[in-house]
Specification:
Length: 319
C-alpha cells in the first residue's frame, strides 16, 4: 500500500470513528423511541403466525461494526433487507435457537417440551420459513419508524453467510438491536443491523425527538392525558395511505353487454358533461369535484362535500 493510500485509509477510519461516536443510540432519542415500541408491534405481528404464545423484548440497542455483528454461526440465518429511501442494506439475523423455534412455531407446533428443541442441521426449507419472519419484522420496523419517517423495508435473500455490499466494509459503523423471541418460555435471539450511514438522512429527526416522547412511546389507557402519545398516534394516522378514486359515472349494464366487450369496444357514457366527478376514498364518497386540465394532465378541484342523505333523496326522486 502506498503512502497516499495509507493516508486515505487512515482518514476513512477516523471518519468512521467520529461517525460511530455521534450516532450512538444514547445521542439519538428518536431511535430509542422507535426501538422502544418495536417489541410491542412485533408481538402483534407474530401472534397471528404461531399457536404458541409469543413475546418480544428489546435486550440491547448499541453501536458496533459490521465485523462484530454480522458473523453468522452454524444454524443461523440472515435476511438481506433493502431500504430504498436510504439507498442502503440492512441485515436481520436469527441465532440457531430462534431459527428452530420460529420454524416449529410457524409450522403448527402447539407445545415444546421443557427440555427445548434438539439441535439439528438447518435446511433451505428453514430459510424459506424464516423469510416470513423477516417480512413481519420488516413491516414492524417500518411501522415503528413511521412516527418520524416513512421508510419501507424490502426483504431479499435469506442467507447463511452475509456478503457485504460494496459500500460496506468490516469496520463500517452500525447500530444494532438485539431482541429476544420468547415462544412459550423458549427463547432465541434476533439481531437487526443498520449501517450508521443509512441513518444520516433522518439524523436530525432522530436527534430532535425529545426524551419525553421517547419515554411515553407506549400506548396509554387515557390518550387524552398523554399529549406525546396523542401526537404520535395522530402522526401515524396522518401517514396512513388510502386509495382515492375519481368516478365520472356509474350505471348498471347487462351481463350480455359485458360479454360483448372486446379490444376496441366503445362504451358510451350517459352523462351530459365531464366537469363533475365524485371523489371516493376507500369506496366511500367524499366530495364532488370539477374536472380540468393543467399542462398535460387532468386535475380535480374539490367543489363541495358529498351529502349522503341528499344524494339518496335525489336518487329516489330521479333528480
Amino acid at each position: 500500500m502506498t503512502a497516499a493510500e495509507s493516508l486515505h485509509e487512515a482518514e476513512k477510519s477516523l471518519e468512521r470513528a467520529l461517525s460511530a461516536g455521534h450516532n450512538r443510540p444514547d445521542r439519538l432519542p428518536g431511535l430509542q423511541m422507535i426501538f422502544g415500541q418495536l417489541p410491542r408491534i412485533m408481538t402483534d405481528e407474530l401472534e397471528s403466525l404461531s399457536p404458541l404464545p409469543v413475546k418480544v423484548h428489546l435486550l440491547e440497542l448499541f453501536a458496533s461494526t459490521i465485523a462484530d455483528t454480522c458473523m453468522l454461526p452454524p444454524g443461523a440465518f440472515a435476511g438481506v433487507v433493502r431500504a430504498e429511501r436510504w439507498r442502503s442494506w440492512l441485515y436481520f439475523m436469527t441465532d440457531p435457537a430462534a431459527t428452530l423455534l420460529f420454524v416449529e412455531a410457524a409450522t403448527g407446533c402447539e407445545a415444546i417440551s421443557p427440555a427445548a428443541l434438539a439441535p439439528r442441521k438447518t435446511t433451505r426449507t428453514d430459510a424459506n420459513v424464516l423469510r416470513v419472519l423477516f417480512r413481519r419484522v420488516a413491516r414492524s420496523l417500518s411501522s415503528a419508524f413511521s412516527i418520524l419517517a416513512d421508510i419501507e423495508f424490502d426483504v431479499g435473500d435469506v442467507v447463511e453467510k452475509i456478503e457485504l455490499e460494496p459500500n460496506l466494509g468490516p469496520t463500517s459503523p452500525v447500530i444494532a438491536a438485539r431482541l429476544s423471541l420468547d415462544f412459550d418460555g423458549h427463547i432465541g435471539a434476533l439481531t437487526l443491523v443498520i449501517p450508521q450511514a443509512a441513518l444520516e438522512s433522518i439524523r436530525n429527526l432522530l436527534v430532535s425527538a425529545s426524551p419525553g416522547e421517547a419515554s411515553n412511546a407506549s400506548p396509554s389507557a387515557h390518550a387524552e392525558e398523554d399529549p406525546a402519545w396523542s401526537r404520535q398516534l395522530a402522526e401515524e394516522i396522518a401517514r396512513a395511505f388510502i386509495e382515492v378514486n375519481g368516478v365520472l359515472e356509474e350505471r348498471p349494464i347487462s351481463l350480455n353487454e359485458v360479454r360483448r366487450f372486446a379490444v376496441g369496444s366503445v362504451i358510451e357514457l350517459q352523462m351530459a358533461s365531464m366537469s363533475r366527478v365524485r371523489l371516493d376514498a376507500d369506496e366511500n364518497p367524499l366530495f364532488w369535484c370539477e374536472l380540468g386540465k393543467r399542462e398535460n394532465g387532468l386535475i380535480l378541484r374539490v367543489e363541495e362535500e358529498f351529502d349522503q342523505q341528499r344524494e339518496a333523496v335525489d336518487e329516489f326522486y330521479g333528480l
